[in-house]
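EI: anyone free to look at a 352-residue chain?
SC: sure, send it
EI:
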Amino acid sequence: MTDIKGGAKARTKARNIKENVKGRSRRTAGALLESGLVFLILIGALVLIFAGNDKLKLDTDQTATMKSPTTSAGSDRQDSQDNGSGSMRVVRVVATIFPLADIARQIGGNRVNVTTLLPPGASPHTFELTPGQAREIANADVIIRVGSGLDDWALRSREGGRGLPPVIIVLTGNSSDHDHAHGDPHIWLDPVRVKDEIAPRIAEALAAKAPDARELFESNLRKYQGELEILHDHIARVIRKCRTKKYISFHSAWRHFGARYGLTEVASIEEFPGREPSARWIANIVNLARKNEVKVIFAEPQFSPKVARAIAGEIGGRVLLLDPLGGEGIQGRDSYLGLMNYNLSIFEEALQ
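SC: here you go
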């Protein structure tokens, strides 16, 4: 009996010990679990801290990246004006007619971007601007125009861009009494006036917009003036040798040229700019041609040669083509010097 009771007590004690062990194990496991959770929380906090730092760095990098295109775009605009060097500004020039545009290119070199408004074959007397050309005018740094009513259409654009630029060259704006007496705005057809008046004014206007390039412009001007002097001497020698000095033009564009080299315009076919002459006017030209023994009638590529051919047929003469404007892509007339040499060859042929 005693043994049975002793055994029961032993088993009870063993269970108590087991339960105590289990309880301690559960408490230990709970403590460990709690410690593990704390550790995980700490780890999570550290991850968040580092992630926040990385995000801050990433945000900073992204901000720098977002700012970079703005800076680059600004640099591109600067480069487009500075010819890609960061310091050399390219002057945007708009010229109403090709001869003035070419003169500007010769003086400006790679420091100018020149646009010609009047396309080859068009007449400044009847031309109308396109919307694109109006924008070119609005955004130009320098506008070169003739004035005296020849190209007033260049002033009809004031919308968009920066409006009319501060430097506008009007060639006949300060014209001499000689200009008013002749009523002829085609002063670029006199190489001496190009050398002494037009080219220097263009060089000064370019220098006003790009002062750092003044020395370049002045150097190019001197070189170009030398070429113009050679052209003038050549024209004078050729015209002196011509048998006659009288001519009939399509319209009165050659009076400055004639005054410089001793030529006389007997008549002009165009009675009024942009309008066909009357029958009475044509009959008068035929009579003047016969009286002055003129056998060549000048036409121009900007106008129909129909009337010139009719007059030439009446006098037993022929038609030759003078060109006061030239243009890019026209062989032999795609520079001012080339254009004037071409016209000289036509005068030489007609006046023999």
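EI: Confidence is low (pLDDT under 50) at residues 1-14, 16-81, 174-182.
SC: 👍
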